[in-house]
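WARN no homologs supplied; continuing
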Amino acid sequence: TMALCLKQVFNKDKTFRPRKKFEPGTQRFELYKKAQASLKSGLDLKAVVQLPPGESINDWIAVHVVDFFNRINLIYGTMSEYCTERSCPIMSGGLKYEYRWQDDSKYKKPTKLSAPQYMCMLMDWIEMLINNEDVFPTRIGVPFPKQFQQVCTKILTRLFRVFVHVYIHHFDSIINMGAEAHVNTCYKHFYYFIREFSLIDHRELEPLVRMALAWGG
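OK structure emitted
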């Protein structure tokens, strides 16, 4: 069956990073469960991403950022054996797009990295942010920082680049693994979410724009 096939494809041992979990009993855990239930019910993905009545937009964004990190982390983990220093010496999306890495510690200027290096830096950086209580508070009553949505935009913009690289450079591997439907659903969900809340600059979306147009995005 498809589910069994995906279980084999998305093997837990291949997860690129440990999964971040929502604590049971918290408001955010309940929101996560609500989002997952809608997703599994087969509702239109454009409807699934809409903010439920009475919920906080920052909570909704936080839940999705963590969930997308986990999912994309898993997708890249399964592709990582095909994405090597030799096959992908530059983090890119075809010949037209190259992504350089910059952070506040080791790489203060945009720096050329191989795709595997870039992915490693990216997943570490996101993990550090989502586990930082000052950025992603988990206790009820603790407010989100003023720059929370800006931080999420940066995270989601960089996660989008994982899709760009995987689709443009490793799509044959996705097909060979029988994972095309799963990756496409994850990407559609991600795309509709960032469009719903205008979380990524439309210029960043250009590398996969034809794909979005093909399914009426």
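The longest helix spans residues 148-176.
OK
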